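Usage

Read records sequentially. Each one opens with the input sequence:
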Amino acid sequence: MANTDVTSKKVSTIASNNEVGRGYTRQVSLTFQDFLDNEPSGSSDNDTQTYELFTLPVGCILKGVHYHLRTAFDDSGGGSQLQLEIGDTSDPNGILIAKEVHVDSSEVVAAAGIDGAFFTVGSDVGTLNAKAYTAANTVEALFTPGAGGSAYKLSELTQGEIVFVADIIYTNLAQA
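and closes with the structure output:
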């Protein structure tokens, strides 16, 4: 199984005061078309794609990355699972542990990204409320097709849209 790293070109700029008042500072959405557009030639069944969602400059504090599944993903073949994990370059699921976003599974339509290792002490999920970054990093979403189910390619997706929102405190606004 191979992975393709993709830098999203849809990342929003820093949020307005209204958006911050609603609890997020950045937003990005992905649709099934993004997977089609970014699949490399010669890809195989169950190859993954990792999307760079948000950049994290030195000194920022990440309070969470959450998602809303506007439309569950589906494929044209016999695939039944599409797993999502959110993390940074140090831990691919440090923010959000595997959630299902395929229509043929018990898809999770919304999740607060605070159940990964970055927000957990021992076995107490969600006990930490932020992660401070002393070096620049990126928030990434890893999509794995066919995780435990029938194999398929991400280019076989025919529907799906997901919106990610991040709550990031920028301690150095010149870097935001």
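Summary fields computed downstream for this record:
- Confidence is low (pLDDT under 50) at residues 15-22.
- The chain is about 5% helix and 45% strand.
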